[in-house]
UniProtKB/TrEMBL annotation, chain A:
Protein name (Swiss-Prot/TrEMBL): Phosphate transport system permease protein PstA
GO cellular component assignments: plasma membrane
Biological source species: Ignisphaera aggregans
UniProt KW keywords: Cell membrane, Membrane, Phosphate transport, Transmembrane, Transmembrane helix, Transport
CDD domains for the chain: TM_PBP2
GO BP terms: phosphate ion transmembrane transport
Source superkingdom: Archaea
ABC transmembrane type-1 domain location: 70-273
GO molecular-function terms, A-Z: phosphate transmembrane transporter activity
Similarity annotation: Belongs to the binding-protein-dependent transport system permease family. CysTW subfamily.
PANTHER family: PHOSPHATE TRANSPORT SYSTEM PERMEASE PROTEIN PSTA (PTHR42922:SF1)
Membrane topology of the entry: Multi-pass membrane protein
From TrEMBL, chain B:
One cellular component term from this protein's GO annotations in UniProt: plasma membrane
GO molecular-function term, one example from the UniProt record: phosphate transmembrane transporter activity
Residue ranges of every copy of the ABC transmembrane type-1 domain listed in the record: 72-298
Major subcellular location class: membrane
Protein name as it appears in the record: Phosphate transport system permease protein
SUPFAM superfamilies: MetI-like
Amino acid sequence: MEIDKRIVLDKVFTAIIVMLAILALTPLIWIVSSVVINGVKAIVKAGIDILFKPPTSPLSQSLGGVGPALLGTLILMALTTAIGMPIAFFTAVLATEYPHTILAKAVNIVIRTLLEIPTVLIGMFVYSLVVVPMGRFSAIAGAIALAIVLLPYTYTYIESALSSIPREYREAAFSIGLTRIRALMKVFVGIARRGILAGMLIGLAKACGETAPLLFTIGGSTRVYFTGIDQPIDAIPLLIYRYALTPYENYHALSWAAALILISIYLPIFVIAKVLIREVEM
Amino acid sequence: MSRMSREDRMLFYSLLPFASIVIAIFITLFISLVENSIPVLIREGINFIVSSEWRAVEQDPKSEFYGILSPLIGTLITSIIALVIALPLSISLALFMLEYAPNSIRFVLSNLIEVMAGLPTVIYGLWGLFILAPLLRDYVMYPLYRYLWLIPLFSAEPVTPTTLFTASVVLAIMIVPFMTRLIVEAYRAIPVKYKEAALALGFTKLEYCKTMLSLARPAIIAAALLGWGRAAGETVAVCMTIGNSFSLTLSLFKPGYTISSLIANQFPNAEFYHYMYSALYGAAFILLLIGLVVNSIAMILLVRWRELIHGDR
């Protein structure tokens, strides 16, 4: 009897686990498929214009496109890379090469805290720090906000890639008389290159989809293309957010299309990063 | 520092500016939060968090008053409900992946979960707004309201599809992949000897999983706290699904605010008022403090757990 009870309980448990797991997975699959279905629908309707044209007026028959926002997102990604990556990389080098300095310890605490700060606060911060003094919203303000978002992610990956270099390699590099700077450039970065690249890509994947840091920083109009890094600019996530909350059908369609475009930017970056890390692990 | 060679020191000094920027950003961020919060905190004191009155008056700073009780409660309610929904789902999904799914499915699932954990949250919001919200209103909120309206939580008619409840469900869905990943990680960190011991005793799956989960309990609590922190700090997915309005109510079926959605909606107008800017900074500061406390508890739990579980190796 005792055994029967155990087996019955086990079966019940299995059924519950499988049911709840399916319940947990359903929305995830549902989200991806509805973005694909609605996005493709909108893109088919708009044609190739979706990538280049600005949106049309709310009640017009055609959709137009998300050209300015797409260009804006690409420019923001480039600027964010230019600002954020060097800081993340060299700070990680300092933390791994001089781990016993106060600075390295402070950096580690700061990075862990930055990782947990709600991104909307970073938007507020950059607003007071950059937008107010400059007197206007700008691409550069948005890029600074995104760089702060990217920083802890990229730093964490690079730091762990650099510090996981086996001791023997480090000692070997120093024993043949390489100075630290040469060992770093010729040996360590080479060994950790996949991890470093993965960290940069993860940070970029994170930055390209963030909306909250852009709310008070880029202030772009969906119709104006890039006019300079000190000028307002638009971005895909912001367009999705703004257009989804309008009452217009064609703007809803555009936000679905933009969501599909956003996933098509995010996914390859993310997948390449994960592949790079997985190969390191093996 | 003096023990370093000349070249070592040169490298250190050339890296110094970058690390200093990181520290400087952090300090400035903190200072700007505190500095900007001070006016409203001095002016309103404790009323800032225990009042739900939000009076924004143009041209007349004297009659302005900002109490963030309602968004504060909105943040707590939505994130706690999200956690209550997401925790059993995440644990089940993690167990399913680790103990039940065949290898090929496990590979697909773990990649799907990774991707979804990093997916831009605006996409969760978009889906929540257009697909989930109407369904929730028709098939969950209305039935609950109709039959259980005596319970205060369900006492309001769900007039709009975007409510505190909708936002909670969207947040739950959003943190499931994040928490599942953390739980899977913790589960994998349990040393093999415990797993072997459990199997050697002839445990059924249920007994085995129960043992493993209780071994990983502190890590699971930490995962829950981190997931909660995500939910409490999320902005756009909430803005799109919560309805954005001030209402101090126990009912989940009304539109509401969280602190971050309040900031997202009101910050652009703040310059027209004298104290609103400061009020929003104050709200942000409180949100950050709560988040940091919870996250620190989670981190301490994790560190202790790792020491405990690997300590006797």
